[in-house]
Design brief:
about 260 residues, mainly beta, YmcC-like fold, 14-stranded antiparallel β-sheet, 14 strands, globular
Length: about 260
């Protein structure tokens, strides 16, 4: 994908002219009521910036950085995959064009997103992925499994041969209102735990129907923690190819068919 060309121009919320986009994006600000119907969150051109805080197992701060998601639109349809899948790009500051790519599943019944996976974020392959069944309701539980290839191993936390089966169990435990840089948001709280031969991991995610995953609090296989908090949402003008690489499609296909309700 390194040959792709990008044209990314940031537009702040105050600069948007299309009323439909204004309504959609301003839904992140000051919203404290849960909408009844799901509206698309990962639409082409939408960008989400997260502040990432890293912690040692004893709670000692290890550093801060930024993770940004840019929504690139639907990928080129393939016969065996659902065309509701969207392509996203990750960058690791607030201004750069995306430099690695994966996908999102979003429709009336599910929101699933592949986490960042560059450098130290590769460790998130062994943690539960952000995932919520829709419409969310308290007490809802499900399970999902993913085979993680050995290329995602790292001697800093774990290495293995062949695919490593990671099984994640999710439960919607209730609702909580968060005060965030983008407003006061009412969120569903999803508790997840993953197990694999290398250890156990956990994720607490906070899902808002207008802004998606507002906060993601991970406990990783090395017992370190990382917390991603939504700090900004904008829209950008993009011009990118929309075809996935085969390995990206395989990951998305496993999400499409791998969930098992409990």
């Amino acid at each position: 994908m390194s040959g792709n060309l990008y044209r990314v121009t940031s537009i702040r919320l105050s600069q948007l002219l299309l009323p439909s986009l204004v309504v959609m994006l301003l839904g992140c600000h000051g919203q404290d009521r849960m909408p009844r119907a799901h509206r698309a969150i990962f639409v082409q051109g939408r960008r989400f910036s997260y502040a990432a805080a890293h912690y040692a197992p004893d709670g000692r701060p290890l550093g801060h950085d930024t993770v940004t998601i840019t929504c690139l639109g639907k990928y080129k349809p393939e016969d065996e995959y659902d065309t509701t899948q969207l392509k996203i790009g990750y960058s690791y500051d607030a201004v750069s064009a995306p430099n690695n790519f994966t996908g999102v599943l979003e429709n009336d019944t599910v929101l699933w997103i592949h986490p960042p996976r560059e450098d130290a974020y590769r460790i998130l392959e062994l943690s539960p992925f952000p995932y919520v069944k829709l419409p969310a309701r308290q007490g809802q539980r499900w399970q999902w499994a993913l085979g993680v290839g050995s290329q995602w191993g790292d001697k800093r936390w774990a290495t293995w041969k062949d695919d490593l089966l990671v099984t994640s169990t999710y439960e919607v435990t209730g609702q909580q209102t968060l005060s965030t840089p983008v407003g006061k948001l009412r969120c569903w709280v999803v508790q997840a735990r993953a197990t694999c031969p290398k250890g156990t991991t956990a994720l607490t995610s906070f899902y808002n129907p207008s802004c998606g995953f507002v906060r993601l609090a991970y406990r990783n296989v090395n017992k370190q923690r990382v917390v991603l908090t939504l700090v900004d949402t904008t829209t950008v003008a993009i011009a990118v190819p929309n075809k996935f690489l085969p390995e990206e499609l395989r990951a998305l296909g496993s999400a499409r068919g791998g969930a098992r309700m409990l």
